[in-house]
Amino acid sequence: MRQSIRRSMIYAITVAFALLMSTPARAADPEQVQKLLETGACQGCNLSGANLRHAHLIGADLRGANLQGADLSGANLEGADLSGANLERANLVGTFATNADMSGSNMARADLTNAIVYNAETRGANLTDLTFQNAQLYGSGINVGGGD
Question: How far is CA 122 from CA 58, 75, 119, in A?
Answer without folding.
Answer: 18, 18, 9
